[in-house]
Each structure stands twice: as structure tokens, then as C-alpha cells.
């Protein structure tokens, strides 16, 4: 069964080429010694606006009709996807409205405004922001782009793993963090079509292990309302578009605790000299914790982004 | 006048190829917008042990005779050169002793020990460490490698700019930080032989502006004993081997203050997602402060290293 045609995936790379950066792949002999694996870090922290989300947002916009483009788009996010939609909209020359909770961090608000998008504040609950999105869709004819549960976003996200597979010329394992499921689903589709022998694994904070439980139960599970993780991009849950893909192509989900996430993040900052965000450190931590599984394997690791609050995380 | 033959410089790349990493060149469209220049960051922060010093240390060892190799080497440094000599000696399989002041930071001591070199503590004054070095040379027949005032070290350092010139295919300007002068001299030699139209500029903290004053007076100047800069790698002064090269080939030295250094470092960490050390931020800060000079120019910038104390600098 194919969720999407192979040439739709490879075609996505051309569709977004003018809007994204191809990102470098880096290696660390010290990390390889530490893990016993041959690890390739795909650095989406060097992507425009600092995260892989730019790929999905750009591809979703590149897939809109002229009428849709003329009317503009709307999304809800207080994180990287908000910035990705804002920057993409600027590059496409279209209108974007971002629904954010009133209590969103000021720095995130400023970043979105800096790209020229309009922010619409909503109440703190999911219901509030969804109501706001529906109002904007109806009143202004805006097209909604979901941050992770949208096939065009997933296809856009797949381009990172496509580049990684092409550059490394063959991997035994691909690991990506899993939050809303859009990156993991895209990574899995890329592996299925371009490197079918590669095992795809998701990495998740044990504090919000909904994807782990979803894969076990076969149904989309949720997290406790007060569940906390420092990897704030991963607090969301899977959706009906990406879960079937994940269920079909993902081998397993590995969970790590908060201390492991912090230690892994710190190790990469200090030793590899690159800033990765806590969500990306979840994948690094999974490799470190379960290194026996990866012994002597060629492992691709998607570093999803670099938008970390360095000062507060270093404190 | 040639201080060194062109093929000696290019030959150095082969001599050290097995001991160092070729480092990536990265660009930032945001930084280019900010400065109006076309800037190429040569990332020695991704070099082995985290700094360009590995190039000079490896080249100095590769230039030793078998008898010298059999007896071992000695240097004095409490910074990156200590680690560079320690790691190089490990790779060459030779003995290394590093003279360090008793009050050297514990983390530096541990790093050197981790590479297997022996640390010899001396008193805090320059005279103390030099006495200690002489004792070791006489007693044990060790060969002394100076961190910056040694032609083989300078030639090794030149390989960074050689790679940068080759990869970018032509630069209007090359900027490197200047402390002891070994990196700036190597950069100047590389430009002279491989890109003679390129203007070479040094960047220095105004608090320790000895190189700036030396270039003006034509003599090696020193700094006040209590002079402080956060760019601790740049507190040293020029030497009789590198100063003639700098005097001949370097166009000018640009000075920046402590606040500019910190702001530049912070900008690179946050926006470019790479960790650079304060000494490297000096060159970034010089470009930012004097950006009118670099308008529409192709500028190569040597990011000398990434061994920053992230926690204390972020605090």
C-alpha cells in the first residue's frame, strides 16, 4: 500500500527548492565512539527560521491553487510552525494569520511579527484556538494548514530524510523525534520509497509518550493534561492523517526521560558546537540510551531544529 | 620577498590530512543582510579538539625528525594549544608534556589529561613557565613547540585559509582574530600565495590592542599586565617569527570592545546555531562594527574555535 506516489515525494524537493535551504549532514567521531554506531546528523537547525517546519509550510503553500494563494492561509501554533508559515507566506507574497494563545512567549510573538504575519490571539484551550481558526476560514476564506496532520506538510517534511538518504547513500536506521507526527510520518515515507531496507524509529519524551502508546494500542492516544516535558515541541499528539503512515512504516518508538534529554542536548552543544533544541535532543538521547540496538549500524538522525532558549536552558 | 615557498604551504595540507578535519564553510543570509557583505564563515569550531590550533600542532609534529619524535615534545599553554598538542601527540604516538600554571582551570587540565599528555605545573609568571620548559628540554631532550611563534605552526595554521580560498574561489577580504599572531600570519601567507588580491585584516579586542599598536609602531608592543578581555585566547602578544609576516602582508587591525564581542558571539549562537568562542566573536564583531568597509565585498572570516564556557557566558 502506498500513501503517496514516489514521484510526488521527489517532486516536492523541486517545488520547495527556492524557499528552503538544503541542510548539511555532519558527523562526530567522538559521538560515534560513544555510541558504537556510525551516525549522520541531518541539521535542520540550520534550516531557514531554524527548523524543519519550513519544509512542510513551504510545500503546503506550493500546493495551493491561485485562488487559495490570493486569499491567504491560517494556522494555529505558538512554536516553530508559526514562524515557518509566517516566513513562507512572506516568500510566497501571501497573507498569513497565526492563531496563538494569549499567553504565548513574547519572543515567539515577535519572531512571527518580524516575518510580517498577523497574530490572532485566542483563549488558552484547544477549543478556543480551533474556534478562532474556523471563524477566520469562514469570514476571510483563508486556507487552514495544520502543523503536522496535513499530507502536504508531511510530504514537505519528507524532503529532509530524502536529502539525508541521498547524501549518505544508505542507512540501516533513521531516527526522528515524534510530537504531532508530521516529521516522523514524512521520514517514514521517504524511507519507504527511497531506502526501503532502512528501519524507521521515533524518539519521544517518556513524559508525553502518546505515540509510544498509540503504536501499541493501534489507536491515537493522548497525554495527561498537565504532562510536562522540556521538549515543548513534542507535547502534541498524532493525527488521523499521519498515524496510519506511522503505524504502517515505523518500527518502534523509543522513550527517554527529561534528564537524558538535557544531558544529550548539552553534550551536542558543548562537544559538537551546534545549538539544537530540546526536541531534537530527544532523538540524540534515544540513540545514547539504547545504543546496543545501534551497534555498528549506520544511523541517520534528524536534528529537527535549533530554536532553543539558550540562556534559560544553560542556567 | 617570500617567507615561505608556495609548495611548502600547499604541501602542509597533505602532511596533516590524516590528523585534522577539513572544516565546513557556512553562510548566513541574515548575517549578509545585516552587514551588506557576502560572508563565508570558515568553521574551525568543528575542527578536532574544537579549534584551528590542531592544524599548527599537527604540522609541527609532522615536521619533526624521527629522533625528535622519539624523544617527544613540550609546550606551554593553558588554552586550546595545550589540547592541540596533547591530541596530536596521541595521534602521532609520541610523548607530550604541557607546562601549565597551577591556577589553570580544572576543565582545561582534564581535557589535556584525557588525551593522554602529561601536565607539568609551573608558577603563574611567564618566567616560571619558560624556566620549566627549558628544564624539560635539557633534561629530557623534548622539542619545544611554541603555540604561535613557530614557522611550522604558522604553516599548519595557513591550511584553514587555504581551504577557504579554494572553496570560495576568490575573496576580497580575509579576517582572522589576532592574539599571539600565529593564525593571522598563517592566514596572510595563504592569501599571499593563493589569492594575492585578497586584503588580510586582523581583529583584536581593544583592551589588548598590542597587535594594532605593533603594526603602527613597527615594533612588537605589549599589553598592560592587568589587561582583561573575555576573549582570553587573545591576551598574548606577537613574536619575532610571525610579526615580520604580519607587518608585510596584513593590511590593518580592527579593534572592538567587550560589549561588541559578547553581542556578536551571542548573535552567532542564537541565529546561526553554532557555538563559537569569544576569540572568534572578535572577528565577527569587527565585521559588524566596520561594515561600511565591507559593503558588497566577499569576506572570508576565520572562526577560530568553539571552546566556549557556554554556561558562564550565557549567565
Please tag this protein with its features.
homodimer, 315 residues, alpha/beta, Rossmann fold, 2 domains, 4-stranded parallel beta sheet
Q: Can you tell me about this structure?
A:
Two copies of one chain form a homodimer. Chain A folds into two domains: 6-51 and 152-314, Rossmann fold; 54-144, Rossmann fold, CATH 3.40.50.1100. Chain A contains 14 helices and ten strands. The first copy, chain A, is 48% helix and 15% strand.
Shape of chain A: globular
Low-confidence runs of chain A (pLDDT<50, min 5 residues)? none
Summarize the largest interface: chains and residue counts: A-B, 17 and 17 residues
Portion in beta strands of chain A: 15-25%
CATH class of the largest domain in chain A: Alpha Beta
CATH architecture classification of the largest domain in chain A: 3-Layer(aba) Sandwich
- Per the CATH scheme, the topology name of the largest domain in chain A is Rossmann fold
Strand elements of chain A, count: 10
Q: Tell me the number of helical segments of chain A per DSSP (H or I, 4 or more residues long).
A: 14
